């Protein structure tokens, strides 16, 4: 017996209803022979901000890359679901079309293009994203610098552009890898304000950050990675309150 389209739609809706908005289940990922992501599971409700923490080399970047379906590390097993759709069977560009946006540590601003061209290029890929006017409203600094070449921006401005580009692409799950990295404290405060407004807009975000206290203050939930495994998953406040946990896994 073949299923009718309506029955299949109903089935998809049931799957959506029964799963969290985002779920990574038992991810195992490798760089060649190196087994790095060792059974990571995470789940998030829509609009949550999750701080993904852990020492240098714990596997934070690798986990984000596996979720974004980049070629490396190679995901050998595990499931990734976003908004009722399986991403583990997809390639990076397909996952990006479903709304996964990774802002890597180096920000990847495209050379030779102005701020506005960087944003327009992002919009071509995903016409459902934020219009330019809305982006400029939230990032007045980018509006001022719209005709400047993107790679000549300051570190903080490049971070703003990288986040704005994700919004231009209609992001559903934002993956931020160390957005405060290499920025002066006053610029960190500016980026914090932007992340606060992202939170208010209800954009589901995984925030990887060395500055764990700042990340925990913003986040609703926290997960701690150690040697490629999740060793804590709970509220951000629990980590702030648990000095022993922080010392053991975060050295703070
Ligand atoms: N391209 C690669 N090839 C082989 N091993 C890698 C590669 N990239 C990372 N690794 C290894 O994987 C482990 C996890 O690295 P990863 O970059 O995910 O950690 P991290 O938690 O993001 O660290 P950091 O806080 O320093 O950014 C490390 O042991 C690292 O040496
Ligand atoms: Mg990293």
CATH-defined fold name: Rossmann fold
Number of helices: 11
How are strands sequenced across the largest beta sheet? 6-7-8-3-9-10
Instruction: Give average pLDDT, whole number.
Output: 92
Description:
The protein is α/β, with parallel strands linked by helices. It has one domain: P-loop containing nucleotide triphosphate hydrolases (Rossmann fold, 3-Layer(aba) Sandwich), CATH 3.40.50.300. 40% of the residues lie in helices and 25% in strands. The protein has eleven helices and ten strands. The strands form two sheets. A six-stranded mixed beta sheet has the order 6-7-8-3-9-10, with helices on both faces. It has a four-stranded antiparallel beta sheet with strand order 2-1-4-5, with helices on one face. Helix 4 runs parallel beside helix 7. It is globular and about 45 Å long. The N and C termini lie far apart (60 Å). The mean pLDDT is 92.
List its traits.
40% helix, 25% strand, globular, 4-stranded antiparallel β-sheet, 11 helices, 252 residues, binds adenosine-5'-triphosphate, Rossmann fold, 6-stranded mixed β-sheet, alpha/beta, single chain, binds magnesium ion
């Amino acid at each position: 017996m073949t299923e009718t389209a309506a029955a299949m739609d109903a089935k998809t809706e049931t799957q959506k209803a029964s799963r969290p908005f985002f779920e990574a289940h038992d991810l195992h990922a490798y760089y060649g022979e190196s087994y790095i992501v060792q059974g990571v599971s995470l789940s998030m409700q829509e609009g949550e901000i999750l701080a993904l923490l852990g020492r240098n080399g714990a596997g934070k970047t690798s986990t984000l890359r596996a979720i974004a379906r980049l070629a490396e590390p190679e995901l050998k097993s595990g499931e990734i679901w976003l908004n009722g759709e399986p991403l583990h069977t997809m390639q990076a560009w397909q996952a990006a079309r479903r709304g996964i946006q990774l802002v890597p540590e180096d920000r990847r601003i495209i050379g030779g293009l102005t701020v506005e061209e960087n944003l327009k290029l992002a919009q071509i890929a995903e016409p459902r994203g934020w219009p330019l006017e809305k982006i400029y409203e939230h990032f007045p600094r980018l509006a001022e610098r719209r005709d400047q070449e993107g790679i000549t921006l300051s570190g903080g401005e490049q971070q703003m552009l990288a986040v704005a580009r994700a919004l231009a692409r209609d992001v559903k799950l934002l993956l931020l890898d160390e957005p405060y990295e290499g920025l002066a404290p006053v610029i960190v405060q500016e980026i914090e304000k932007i992340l606060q407004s992202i939170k208010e807009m209800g954009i589901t975000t995984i925030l990887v950050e060395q500055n764990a206290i700042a990340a925990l203050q913003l986040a609703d939930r926290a997960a701690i990675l150690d040697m490629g495994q999740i060793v804590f998953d709970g509220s951000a406040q629990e980590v702030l309150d648990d000095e022993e946990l922080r010392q053991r896994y975060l050295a703070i």
